[in-house]
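Question thread 4412

I'm putting together a teaching handout and wanted feedback from people who do this every day. The idea is simple: show students a protein as raw sequence, then show them the structure tokens that encode its fold, then repeat with a second protein so they can compare. Below is the first pair exactly as I plan to print it.
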Amino acid sequence: MRCVFVQFRCIPGKTYEVADAIYEREVVSELYSTSGEFDLIAKIYIPEDADPGHFLNEKLFDIPGISRTLTTMTFKAF
């Protein structure tokens, strides 16, 4: 499994709806609300044989209320 972090910027007033929809998809390992430019951050494990872009697009990025995302790929853990 490959770990990625995805930050979500939500349309104002939609953060709780977006968070609920993300949890309903049962894709994320952890989900937190954050301060700063983004409203939520999720830790997601993607199967090694899956393309990260396709996986995230199919599983999460079609949720209404998301205005922007930022995906951070991870590499070797120290």
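The second pair follows. I'd like the answer to focus on this one:
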Amino acid sequence: MHAQFDYPALRRVLVGEYPLWDEALALLNRDLSVTLPEQGPLQLVAQPSYEEGEPECVYVALASGEWHGGHLYPKAAEDLAHALAIVADAAQDTVSECLWQAWPLCVEHKLGLHAREVDGQLAWWCAGGTPADGSPHIRAAVGSLDTH
């Protein structure tokens, strides 16, 4: 048990501890390296639970270790597609809040993109220029962004 405001120390998660999250993070880092090349890769960091016997809290952090948002639940990811959706949401929270900018951006409409399942694959979509039928403007699959 920890005293009030006695936060347990963060540690960097080693590759292989959470294999599905590692795979998901690798895809997101491809998008980050293209869209924000000045940033280092995102990483997973962990903090022990305050409650004995509870799993540690894992977060998506910037290369600096700074993070924002809720933690990833260790048993929440059932498969890579589900893990990718969870990690993409956490990565967007961290990048947007820590860097104070929307990420990723649609290069055509200059609006923030959102992850959405399209035809069984997670894709970045944009609300700009949405056709009258209500279908989203699909930019690219997560992990496949470019600067065009």
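Top answer:
Good format. For the second protein you could add a caption like this: Strands lie at 11-12, 43-47, 57-61, 114-118, 121-126, 137-141. The longest helix spans residues 80-99.
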